[in-house]
TrEMBL record:
This is ABC transporter ATP-binding protein. It comes from Blastochloris sulfoviridis. Belongs to the ABC transporter superfamily. One of its GO terms (molecular function) is ATPase-coupled transmembrane transporter activity. Residues 5-234 form the ABC transporter domain. The keyword Nucleotide-binding applies. Keywords: ATP-binding, Nucleotide-binding, Transport.
Length: 234
């Protein structure tokens, strides 16, 4: 089985601080939903950003979609195929309205206006977010913003999702809704989460980042449900 993403012996430290990653290894295969847990400051968000080239490790390698990636240009394709949903939605949403935020990625990938209009409508419909289409983004609730950031990433039709604390500050109904969405998506995922109930509901495998390295902590829920693909390919 060919891996989609792999970190091999990754070492990374912020300036004037000890290494937060010290030989970290993590692999994601097709159909997996890997939940990554660990203490605050353990380096979980850092590892996600390294996988898409937003941070450069001091040592180790990143292999994505069958190729080793080193230079910035190597990651252009990776960022098109691996959608990162940040921990803070305000770091990701910057257009005036929800529809414009969802349209931003496909437009920058060269899709026509007509294609993008269809993608936006389809994505919002599938996530039951159509009622937010023309809302001003910064006036949304925290839970609404999280769902819109997911919509904006899915509109780019990624092969992989990287989700950083997706249930943070969500109320129970919104968390349940997000769980239902993620467990029907076909994309492989790496999910950083402190939420044990959420992890048990979505994970096919769980690992822990501790002292700079990844440790297995047992299997999550078996049996992956492949629902309809929400974002178009091609």
């Amino acid at each position: 089985m060919a891996l989609l993403l792999e970190a091999q012996g990754v070492v990374f430290g912020y300036p004037s601080q000890p290494a937060v990653l010290d030989g970290a290894d993590l692999a994601l295969g097709p159909g997996e939903r890997v939940c990554l847990e660990g203490a605050n400051g353990a380096g979980k968000s850092t590892l996600l950003q390294i996988l898409v080239g937003l941070l450069v490790p001091q040592a180790g390698t990143v292999v994505a979609f069958g190729r080793e990636r080193r230079a910035e240009r190597d990651f252009y394709e990776v960022r098109r195929r691996a959608g990162l949903v940040f921990q803070d939605p305000d770091d990701q949403l910057f257009c005036p309205t929800v529809a414009e935020d969802v349209a931003f990625g496909p437009l920058n990938m060269g899709r026509s206006r007509a294609e993008v209009a269809d993608i936006v409508q389809c994505t919002l419909d599938e996530l039951n977010l159509t009622h937010l289409r023309d809302r001003v983004t910064h006036k949304l609730s925290g839970g609404e913003k999280r769902l819109v950031t997911l919509a904006a990433v899915l509109a780019m039709a990624p092969d992989v999702l990287l989700l950083d604390e997706p249930t943070n500050a969500l109320d129970e109904p919104t968390r349940e809704r997000l769980t239902a969405i993620l467990t029907t998506l076909p994309q492989a995922m790496i999910i950083v989460s402190h939420d044990p109930l959420f992890r048990r509901a979505v994970a096919t495998r769980s690992v822990r980042l501790e002292r700079g390295r990844i440790q297995p902590i047992g299997e999550g829920q078996r049996g992956i449900t492949h629902g309809p693909r929400l974002a178009r390919k091609g």
